[in-house]
Predict the structure.
Amino acid sequence: IHTGPCMSGIVGTKSLRFCLFGDTMNTAARMEQKGTAACVHTTQDVVDLVPGERWEKLAKMEVKGKGSMQTYLLRLPSMADEEFEGGDNIASVVASVSKREYENPFFLQSKGDDGSDPLEEVSSAERLDVGSGPSLYQDIQPVSDAVYAEHTKWFGLCFKKLHIERAFLDGQARQGKIIVFVGYGLYVLLMLSNYLKGYVEYYYQTKWCRTSEDLCLFLFGPASYEAAQSDGKVTYDMVASYAVYNMNEYLSFAVLILLVLACVVHVVIHRVAAIEKWWATVVVAAVYTLLLTGMLISAAAYGRLRVESGSGQWVTSIGFVIINISTLMSFFTDAPFLGHFLWWFVATALYYGLGVTTIGATVRIDESYNAIRNGANAVSGCVLLTMYSIILLFGSCLRDKSNRKQFLQRVLMVKQQNQIIREKSRNERMQRHFLENILPANVVEKLQRRQLRKQRGLRMTLKKSFKSSISQRHFGVGMLYADLVGFTSFCKQVDPFSVMVFLNDLFEVFDGLCDDFNVYKVETVGDCYVATVGVVTGEQHFMAVDAPTPNSPQPLLDSMANAKDLVSFAKAMVRGSRQVKKPVLDTPALLRVGLHTGSCISGIIGTRNFKFSLLGDDVTIAAAMEKTGVPDCIHASEDIVKLVPEERWEKCKVH
């Protein structure tokens, strides 16, 4: 242990790790190297800050890069039941570690106060049960008037963007594709009921006129009495003359054909995917407009033909047509307010245009009381229809705005959901990219797959099985350790920030060479750079840790290719380090590089700040090659030399 200032940061661009730099870190590392087993080795600075411990003063020792230093030891009693300061017994902690299931720190979900997973304690039925409590239910707020006004124009009756307006009309058309047929069917029933009324009135009027002459003449006039005395058959014209609306047989046939064609076109529009559905709304509005126009012209023409009889049926017919068709259009179509407004504009123009001309023609031809009365009835009908149109248009306006607000709310919700999905996808990509800069891609994939299985309820109860699935045994692996010469003394002379900047520049050079030689950077520890070929990159030959060792020659072939790549990378590292100058000293950075090849085990150790590590005797040999190497040279084992004999190797003395 040592204490003092340092600089924290990340150096390099591959296998990122949070690191500390400075003379303090180097001194702490020397304390570990010079320490005694089962003891805590500290400097004078630590003892001054924590004087209450049972420190044992040692003789001054020479520390590499520091000179003579006064150090201390803290010997710990061998008591199995000694407790940490937090209160946990050592034995209980060890027992809990042995039973703990392996957790992936990168993908952990939020835990409860007791460390439990809240999703595991709630059944699927309870998750779906929203309940009625105020803490569980939240009402969805409607779109505010300010937001609605921002997206609409013409007093909120049309969306500003054309594609949104077309999407809204498409949605309305899809919602009303069935009720349109209901409206057409009700129109046919109204026409049939109109004829039924005419037949019933004709039947009873004829019956009365045949039984009571005086009553018939008083109520219906001599023309009805004479018609009742005839023995002719009941005809279409007779029934239509007594109906509320007199429609001749040709117009009836034309209306029937129009409705059939309208139904066919409506079905085609909704069946053909290439046709936008808002055309169905246009067709429905056109059909009701054609019905209105044809029936009003027919009623006005019939009124002129019956001037001499003094009949005012045309006045009633016009009101009957407008009221019925406008009601059907209001309740059995999903046309927007502007469509209803245009329909009423046409209806008003036809009503006033045909009504005024018919009244004028009637009064000029027949100046009797009946003609004047019919004209007065037509004028009073104008007032009633005007009031009725205002009511329907007002309701249509409110309904249209309400539908548009609901549609806008759905659009904004979908837009927000898509934005959340995009942000989540972007964050997941960034997270995966970040993880793959810390761990190998296959390890990240295994961690994510395991977390997905856990979320689906497929929990693993044994940490050994999952750690074994991550850990692998590799053969034919080339391992490299590189260390800066004189780094400890350099840190003593230069401030920590300059040290970190220098290491970042140097390691960026090494990281840029990795892809060129199929090298995977394992980690950096201070000034030590660790890399390998054959674990993540290069020719890979691996198997489960508990599988038997293979006897095939393939690992040897893999070792040759990997060793050549590693030696080439090491040569490039040495040349690249010479180009990087140390700050303040302005001298080139010289490396000691150690190489070895063999087998190892890869995996993750621990559960906090864990890292991808390589373990095995051959890894230790590679580290020893670096420690016993010569500055600005590559120190390789005999196994490397046998695999790459073409290099100009110099045989070293046995240490």
Remarks:
- The chain has 23 helices and 16 strands.
- The first strand starts at residue 7 and ends at 9.
- Residues 281 and 335 are 6 Å apart (CA to CA).
- The mean pLDDT is 81.
